[in-house]
Design brief:
It contains eight helices and nine strands. It is globular. Helix 4 runs parallel beside helix 5. A seven-stranded parallel beta sheet has the order 1-2-3-4-7-8-9. The chain has one domain: Metal-dependent hydrolases (TIM Barrel, Alpha-Beta Barrel), CATH 3.20.20.140. By secondary structure, it is of the alpha/beta class. One zinc ion binds next to loops. The site of one zinc ion has 4 residues, from loops.
Length: 274
Amino acid sequence: MKTNYHTHTVWCDGRDTPEAMILSAIEKGFDVLGFSSHSTYPDDNACTVPRLKMPGYFTEVRKLAKKYAVQIKVLCGIEADYIPGATDPDRSRYAEFKPDYIIGSVHYVIAPDGERVPVDHTPELLHEGLSRHFAGDVKAYLQTYFAQEREMVERFDFDILGHPDLCRKFNEKHPYFDETADWYLHELELLADAVAKSGKLVELNTGAISRGWLNDAYPSATFRDMLRKRNVRFVLNSDSHAADTLDCAFDRFADAEDFVAEFSLTKISRPPMI
Ligand SMILES: [Zn+2]
Ligand SMILES: [Zn+2]
């Protein structure tokens, strides 16, 4: 089965309409296409579906799902940010929209002074954030990033962990930390433990390949091994922002045996809520 659960459109920061993405997915032979607009609900920011447009997003995708039901299964989800103190990816926050699934992602690291450092906007913004809000301490920044990732996984009820080592995005072209350092590998192990305990899915995300930043997916090969050793399950996602990149690099990864093709909320086992 060919599936993708991570798709952006003009409703947030994508280039194409949902219908253009669906037509491309049909042409590329997808069985399932899931939309996952960025959201910091109830706050708005430049990359997200504005709060007031959220009902419109769900209505349009649901309508298209019906229109194309014979050719493809279309799902409507959310890529929800975790910004401590502002928003989180918990299912309860999005309950009124009844999303088919939620991807939880960290795109901002909260610095000790309370400011948000954007993880993946541009190398320049990251560099500026690091020097201005972390006094250039890359290790402190990355440890805060992974602490937020763990906290998100442990505290909130959502389905798929989005690009768990997004902090690598600029590290190939503008190296700023050593991915083989013991302290960094320790952070990966801690996050892998938290994910395994939570029962959440992790995406293998090819978005940085299609945008020319990395030659490998998120999570890195090293991190994938750690997760697999703990029996964490994966979905293959392109994090596509345009119709022509919906299955970017899927041929490189699609043969892995451990991808979950289809999932439903009832099939994902969760520890009982206390
Ligand atoms: Zn993302
Ligand atoms: Zn995304």
